[in-house]
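Obj: model holo form, ligand = 2-acetamido-2-deoxy-beta-D-glucopyranose.
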Amino acid sequence: MADDYTTNTLSGWILESTTFFYQSNPRIAFIMSMGIAFLYYYLTSVAKKPEFYCKPGKFRQVLETMVPILNEKFYPTPWCFGTHSQTALSNFIRGLLPNIKYQRDLLETPDGGVLALDWLPSDLPQDAPIAFFMAGLTGHSQTEYIKSIIPSAAKHGCRVAVLNNRGRGGVDLKTPRTYCAVSHDDMDLALTHIKNRYPNSMIVACGISLGGVILGQYLCRSRENALCDAAILVSSVFNISEAVYSMELPGLNRLLNRHLAHTLWLTVEPHKDKFKEFQEKCDLEEVKKSTTIKEFDERFTSKMFGFQSVDHYYDEAKLINKIHNIKVPTLCFCAADDMFQPHNALPLQIPEENENLAFLVTARGGHIGFMEGVLPFPPFFSERLYEQYLLAMIHSIRDGVFKKIL
Ligand SMILES: *[C@@H]1O[C@H](CO)[C@@H](O)[C@H](O)[C@H]1NC(C)=O
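Output (holo structure tokens):
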């Protein structure tokens, strides 16, 4: 009778058949339970809706109605969602995209340097919106994440322009000055050039990583005179001291740091002879030996730009201290697990004070990763967000929700 009772209830039946299955196929049962545990973990702790911070107002309303991805869960690639693996693999996959053909404008700076503005060839009307891009630390117009984000702007009738820093992207270095986190003069020059050439076009600017820091510096300094109508900063660091500290943590961060320090040296090496007159101020042999970004900045960047020390440079470069000055709609997008910027270093209280700023923070994604889906291929989450944001800004600026910069 007792047996009949247990097998007649559903839970009794499940229990009995599971026990039977487990006893007859212990290995498969083990794999299955691991799979279920993983799935549970993935669905509860990895795939999440991004955190969104924005003060109630026009900007928030536009974002909430026209950027639906805000309310989507971000599903990082289930077999590759760690911060370093997202960063590395997304970079590799984006790198598989073919190089882009540009038309290049060379811009001379007042101090004798040269920048290159790369345009995607097009026969768009004179007043087509302009999507402006700036890459990160050692980047240029053929950098992996630039190649993957540009199609999102080009396919919606935007004229695309990418700024290459001095000495990057095949640009010659004419003077012993490269660029740093506070080189917003060069960005100012590029945007002025664009505005003169296309006075009736709106400009939506996108800065990625260090490009976003420079764009942020430009926006903070130019306030209501900024020449772009809206902006987005992707994986940009707001407190450089915090980033440098985080990158010096032992393990993969330290390893990546070493790699970046070497890459930074490689950006200087081809222009070595330009720094001859600099020799007593900065010893290039020492610069070459840098094993961290901080060492490189201490021995090279801060000296080249005349800062008293590397800490002085980092203090000047902190967006966190000036971001309240931004006057055009600006979305800051990053991942909570970005190794350059721990979640607690994000100035998430700022959107409460400045209604032009919004923060969107995904739980995973690493540094410019945001790879999604089981078989990841761009557009990734970041590219899709960019596309929706760009369209939202273009339409709301056209409709007069935000003032168009003249
Ligand atoms: C930036 O980070 C440094 C190092 O962690 C910290 O001491 C400083 O208070 C931070 N600055 C701000 C404005 O949060």
